[in-house]
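Blackboard transcription, Thursday session:
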Amino acid sequence: MILAAVTPPEQLLERLPLVLRDLVTGFFPEPLRWLVASLLAIVAILAVFGLLFAFLTLAERKILGRIQNRPGPNRTGWFGLLQPFADGIKMLTKEDIVPRAADQLLHFLAPVVLVAAALMTFAVIPYGRHLVPVELDAAVLYFFAAGAATELVVFMAGWASHNKYALLAAMRALAQFISYELPLLLSLVPVVMLTGSLSTTGIVAAQAGWKWSLIPHWHVFTPWGFAGFAIFMVAALAESNRSPFDLPEAESELIAGHLTEYSGFKYALFFMAEYFGMTALSGMAVTLFLGGWQAPLPFLQFIPSYAWFGLKLLALLTGFIWIRATFPRLRMDQLMHFAWKFLVPLALLNLGTAAFWEFTHDWSGPLQLARWALALAFVAGPFVALGRRLTAGLGPRQYTYAAA
Amino acid sequence: MNAVLVLIALLMVASAAVALSLRNIVRSTLLFVVNWFGLALFYLWAGAEFVAFAQVLVYVGAVSMVTLFAVLLTRRSLDEPGISPESRSRAAAGIITGCAVAGVLAGAVLRTKFPVASTPAIPTVTVRDIGRELMGPQAAGLLVVGVILTVALIGAIVLAATDRPANREDAP
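(Written on the board underneath:)
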């Protein structure tokens, strides 16, 4: 971990993780300290994100329930707070059925590799000023390389199940993941180009400071950053297999997709990995576009940086749940059209917008207004034009038997 | 440090050997993915973390998918190989191909001059250096690779496209 030079005297709360780490590593001899520090980081990540996963499932069920005008789980503990643990015990005690024709080894390996790969992505996200588990020069690349195992695992699960539906659904899921990986990666290229860094700490540091001590220098508050953030979040929804892109495991589609032949705790592991992936992608979005652990206003800096990161992360995750409650599921062909005809062209055009923004860096006065207007036009123009073209002649829908 | 290298080499050789000896072609493809992952580990061991992550992203993420799709879409029955494995022509073809590849590799290795101990410290190559190198002296090569990939992509689209008139109902 790198200690950044900070101008205001740092409070105890901000340094608390460092103090705790030094307290624990102090018990061990010098040559072992690096190992203990790494193990501590791993334990902290497992504990924090394991619990976050547990309570995220509860929050999802509660919020979905409230949106659908019902209370949601409320019988286990106060307000259903113990529900995740009851679910966990239920999943652990369920029978684990493996089909006789299945490829036993790959069938077992698929959920294990998936969870391992999902956990590895947490290593490079800067959770706070002093809270970066692993500092890497190419951290963004590492993040997506670790995530690349997902596609392989979906294929392994589908093929090893020895079930037609599982294999078909796995191929479809692969098509979806590969299609949406393109806009996901293209939308973050402007961030890497403009900050000139692939390291997550470098990207967060580039978003420090405020304009007129009011508007933070976060990437989302620039035209290209806003477009990139929107594309990134839509692609992240599809990559983490969430509604409205949850075709791979939707029960009304090909049974339960590549999960058809999974039961008991292996089934739970797939969902654990899905929530981990969603959390990690949201954390990456916070890092790339929402200023990472930076406070939104200068006078709010007394709140420790990791609290700001947590708040932004929870806000994005709530957005994921809200979207699930709001939007109907897409059809397979709509899914493909949306990725290749809409998101990919917009992400490519966004590269041009980012270049324009960078090269007009020294425009001032009225030219500054022109810079904003032109950049916004570059973002909104193609969005409106492409959207109109793709939906031409489709609406408004005629309702024969229902009131519109 | 050398023990780690030996372990990585063992992983790669073992995965390649088992992949070649297996009858189940999907399993051997997955073992080749293990092999590519071992190559990424080797780059990591050699200190080229950017290349290692790129290797995982491209080979484990993308090339493995292309290979698996190709395997699933071309072979009618997964368990029956097209030519019987014990035939003499197959053995001859295997030996000739193997010798040719070994010859090319050996020639390349023998013709390369290894600078022994000329660089005392390990040179640190950052991502920035790689980027400058790619945008400066190697820009032409990068462009050629990009053009080849674009041509391949357009070719794939042409092969896959059908001339069926679009159904109005199916539009997004």
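Lecturer's comment: Confidence is low (pLDDT under 50) at residues 1-7 of chain A.
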